[in-house]
Amino acid sequence: MRDVAVIGAGITAFGELWNTSFREMCTEAGVKALEDANVAGEQIDAMFVGSMSAGRFIGQEHVGALVADYVGLGGDLHIPATRVEAACASGGLAFRQAVAAVASGMSDIVVAAGVEKMTDVSDATDVLAGAADREWESFAGATFPGLYAMIACDYMNKYGLTREQLAQVAVKNHYHGAKNPFAQFRSEITQSTVLKSTLVASPLRLFDCSPVSDGAAVVIVCPFKRAKEFTDTPIRVLTSTQSGDTIALHDRPDFSTMGATVAAGNSAFKQAKLERKDIDFVEVHDCFTIAELCAIEDLGFVPKGTAGKFTEEGQTQIGGKLPVNTSGGLKSCGHPVGATGIKQVWEVVQQLRGEAGKRQIDGAEIGMTQNVGGTGATVVSHIFGRA
Amino acid sequence: MVGIITYGAYIPRYRIKVEEIARVWGGNAAEITGGLGVIEKAVPDYDEDTATFAVEATRSALCRRIVDPKEIKAIYVGSESHPYAVKPTSVTVGEAIGATPVMTAADYEFACKAGTAGIQTAMGLVGAGMMNYAIAIGADTAQGAPGDALEYTAAAGGAAYVIGNDDPIAVISHTCSFSTDTPDFWRREGADYPRHGGRFSGEPGYFKHVIGAAKMMLADMGTKPSDYDYAVFHQPNAKFPQKAAARLGFSQDQIKTGLLVSRLGNTYSGAVPLGLAAVLDVAKPGDKIFITSYGSGSGSDAFDITVTDAIHDKIDRSRGPTVDAMLADAKYLDYAVYARHKGKIKT
Amino acid sequence: MVGTKCKTCGKVFFPPRSVCPHCRRNGKIVEYKCSGKGEVLTFSVIHSASDQYAAMKPYVLAIVELEEGTRMTTQIICEPEEVYIGMPVKSVFRVLDREGTEGIIHYGTKFVPNLA
């Protein structure tokens, strides 16, 4: 297996992009990534596009071909483009496919894109519910916030997590997002903003939930040995792991532990021969505030039941022991579902290159991502290092 | 002898007071309550309809007595509020109790007497030896237009009867019917609410048919009203059945157990089946029950029923909720929430 | 409520499964009738629902563990303030959703409190 490096990254602003279509978002992020990597179209071997539900959101399937065509790789160059889907982990999985294509030797220069256009439908809640078990969860009236709310209910009952501690996750992510020029919500909030916001699915309130967003992100990978042809600051992919679990939350032995995160994390640290303390920062899947607490516990950074206190102490904020979601996370940066996994990689690249501006972590050497599909039926995780 | 093998009832938990409806429409609550003899009526939850009532009532019946669902070869659901205009409620019941696919089924409509018409059909099939068991259900989420006189009484609920001839808890000795074409109450295809001919529904409708069928039954059986322990008449309000009973010579004592309308409202096709269920909840072996239903349009079905020892030996009545217990478990709604429950607010 | 049971390991499945996730090809799956009784393991009161459930809100969503040990996602028909972890419940037959005024009506299982 060959070592793989990220040599370019591009992103659109995340938000309600009324004037930008699905294909235009991909084009904008793709051109930025290609410029960043200084790669020409003719050099690209393959493309993977992560999108959860373009079919339900905009009535468009076959988005691999669509995106390749509009970034100028389809018509003349006939580049193979493949759509990848694993609900909200579609982006992370598209990246993993790109890494695998390069590592295996099948391709050299590969584009990994993530995109979603969510604001064109009136009932995004129902589309997102398709990431759960439609027949046995969604048909019973389960919404996505509802499923994560049941995780929160179980967690609070088991570990005595307070509503205030949970709110602190959103407060911290808005603090980070305010420093990210591409974030959907670039404003800081207070604990009372969260606690006074409307109930969505008790105990979760509006400000515990990631928003409905439009956006795209693109990164380019190549064999590590060739990376210097394109950039002075390649980012090495240290591990790529993926784990699965039951599709339905009700079939898990412990609702507060995401088994796939535990498995993906354990195998990543084993493969990379790294300790938890070696990780300088993480981008985790905070689709809801409770998910961030579970993620940092299940990846093994803090013991089960203590992430609320850890967050309350400011340890997950820039300057803390383990900065979490410096991009603003899904909560503040926005959550165009297919794009999120690629955005996480984009953020790690910014941090490791030292280009994260106001949200830069001093001396960041190793970063990690964790991208979740559904309530944890798919988890994709990557560890990156400065070359 | 053909009779009732087991029975079950279902009444939804929500109620609205007649005085609350009167408040909204500017009616005189005391006068309306006094005139109808109805204090409150049962209202369905958002996710309840005639099919859910029918299933719950049937499951209650099957909890009280074990009947192999594969031996149930016919299901008839009588209602004027089937959830679909075309697609039978009866097969939904069949699926829910595991009786499908070797069975026949159909939905009945004969205003408020479709439930008792189903019992007659079931009796015929079992009596003819075509099957061991057949189920007849009467259930409704009765409609009444907002502000119409019917709205004060139109209620929700139903009851299910497993008919067979294998140790019945009550033998049905005889049934007879009295039917004419009488336009006293109707609902056209596609209309949300029924219309009615006002006072026309009394003498030429209810009384002519109820008295006609009841007298036919007494003559056929050679019985007199005092031979019966209980009598149940269709009850669109409290006045009509009391008046019919008095004219026929039945006493208040005989009708009070099965007269539910003051606390339940008019459950249309569910009314007489629920009244009979309330009687069976307390009946003893040997008790004789006189039944007369009424459906606008118009017709009445009469039944002569005798309770047997099997009501003690073959069935555990405590395994299903009694009518009285369900009437007691009431949660009251105001008119706005009731309107939302009944789908009267279009979204 | 008809689920399945693996005769090899004894586990009951509702929602039904045709392959035992523990015994896989060694499992022998047969039909199994569940009692419909269980208890609430976790819950949420849903205030924001997708369009077809909007008429029901707020409603109580829960994961219920049946007596047979299997678990399912369902609704509890009760007031939001009544539900608690450990609440005993029993199954009822209700409308799950209606496809507008002209489409199919889906029926299925929900639960009500089963307090003695």
Roughly how many Å apart are the termini of chain C? 22 Å
Oligomeric form: heterotrimer
- Helix count from the secondary structure assignment of chain C: 0
What series of H and E elements makes up the topology of chain B?
Answer: EEHHEHEHEHEEEEEHEHHHHEEHHEH
CATH class of the largest domain in chain B: Alpha Beta
β-strand number of chain C: 8
Number of strands of chain B: 14
Share of helix among residues of chain B?
Answer: 25-40%
Please state roughly what percent of the residues of chain B sit in beta strands, choosing from under 5%, 5-15%, 15-25%, 25-35%, 35-45% or over 45%.
Answer: 15-25%
For the terminal residues of chain B, how far apart are their CA atoms?
52 Å
CATH architecture descriptor text of the largest domain in chain B: 3-Layer(aba) Sandwich
CA radius of gyration of chain C is 16 Å
Mean pLDDT of chain C: 94
Low-confidence stretches of chain B: none
| Arithmetic mean of pLDDT of chain B | 96
Structural overview:
The complex is a heterotrimer of chains A (387), B (347) and C (116). Chain A has 387 residues and is an alpha/beta fold. Chain A has 2 domains: 4-123 and 213-235, Thiolase/Chalcone synthase (Peroxisomal Thiolase, Chain A, domain 1), CATH 3.40.47; 124-209 and 237-386, Thiolase/Chalcone synthase (Peroxisomal Thiolase, Chain A, domain 1). In chain A, 35% of the residues lie in helices and 18% in strands. In chain A, the strands form 2 sheets. A 9-stranded mixed beta sheet of chain A has the order 3-2-4-7-1-8-11-10-9, sandwiched between helices. In chain A, a hairpin with a 2-residue loop joins strand 5 (199-201) and strand 6. In chain A, helix 4 packs across helix 13 and helix 7 (163-177) crosses helix 10 (289-298). The longest helix of chain A has 17 residues, at 337-353. Chain A is globular. The two termini of chain A are 18 Å apart. With 347 residues, chain B is of the alpha/beta class. Chain B folds into 2 domains: 3-170 and 328-341, Peroxisomal Thiolase, Chain A, domain 1, CATH 3.40.47; 171-310, Thiolase/Chalcone synthase (Peroxisomal Thiolase, Chain A, domain 1), CATH 3.40.47. Chain B contains 13 helices and 14 strands. In chain B, the strands form 3 sheets. Chain B has a 9-stranded mixed beta sheet, with helices on both faces. A 3-stranded mixed beta sheet of chain B has the order 3-2-14. Chain B has a two-stranded antiparallel sheet with strand order 9-10. The longest helix of chain B is centred in the middle third of the chain and has 20 residues, at 202-221. Chain B is globular and about 55 Å long. Chain B starts with a strand and ends in a 6-residue tail after the last helix. Chain C folds into 2 domains: 2-33, no CATH class; 37-113. The two termini of chain C are 22 Å apart. With 116 residues, chain C is an all-beta fold. In chain C, 40% of the residues are buried. In chain C, strand 7 (88-98) and strand 8 (105-113) form a beta hairpin. A 5-stranded antiparallel beta sheet of chain C has the order 6-5-4-7-8, with no helix packed on it. Chain B binds chain C through residues 45-49, 51-52, 55-56, 59, 83-84, 92, 96, 98, 340, 347, and chain C through 2, 54-56, 77, 92-96, 105, 107, 110.
